[in-house]
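Students often ask why we bother encoding 3D structure as a string. The short answer is that it lets us treat folding as translation between two languages. Here is a chain of 339 residues written in the first language.
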Amino acid sequence: MENMMFIKKSLITCLYFSLLVLSGNANDTGIPAKKYYSVTVDNNNCIWFLTELGIVSFNGQKWTLHNNISQGKDLKDIAFDASLEGTGFWIATGSGVTSLKSPVTEGSGSSSYTTDNAAILSNSVLKIVVGKNNLKWIGSAKGIAAYSGTKWLDISYDDLYPSVIFEEYPITSMATNLTGDSLYVGTKGAGIARVFKNDVDGISGASVYAQWGPIIIPSDNVYSVYIEKNGTKWFGTDMGAASHYGNNTLENWVVYTKEEGLVNDFVQAIGADQKGNLWFGTQGGISVFDGKTFTNYTTENGLNSNNILCLATDSKGVVWIGTDNGVNSFSNGTCNSYK
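And here it is in the second language, the structure alphabet:
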């Protein structure tokens, strides 16, 4: 009976996604951007991307290129912050951090943070994440900084993670735990570093997740990190994905590769939809995982490109996919293409 129920569920899932990619629509954004490499969703359900042309937003009806706030900047990452002090965006750039008030208009207020006026370790800022309790995490070429309320936290993890570590093994991805006070940092070559906010308003370090740990992770080149609502941690590498559950770093690991059903082993983005399905963006397409079965999609199924750079789910359950050839969205049996 259980096998029959599982087969029935799998068939329904496959049918749903087959219908989804068969009923796609093509849309013209009116913006000549190609590479959509970072995405966030604001409190009005407007989607914001970083592109090679600058910041691009979509409010459900209109695509807008925000030349006035992004032109000429070396943009790396974007995150939306819905804090008590007022909503806005935090943007990682090659010359520091920009904090931008929302709603974004030509006269929107902004602040800039560099090594001259903030406790960031390098002006080459690569990743930025907003955790709960108004805590911002900034990943730079020399390490991790954090901004809580109106205060930059003291850094006390040098003995575990000296700046040379991050110079040798650059930060590629970051995600917070459920409470927002611990950060998992993916690197190129050194696995996952962990830092946390301590009781004296500082940042401390915890033991590293790496193959030489030893733990079961397919590669120390980690390009994406995602943490589910149940606390399960997912790490996407250039040799597959790994999940880890619990606080014991040496137990409860599972690895997923093409052999287990992934469309491609180079996993660059991980997220989840409102039904609990996990979405893996790879260099060879999309894999959707329902906990037991992978369903895979490529350009043959309607994707603009197989090179998936970022993804996010909005408040209506639409999954947004950034590629190197425009954007796809997936919702209620429809796959939309935006170029």
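Translate back mentally: The first helix runs from residue 2 to 22. Keep this in mind for the problem set.
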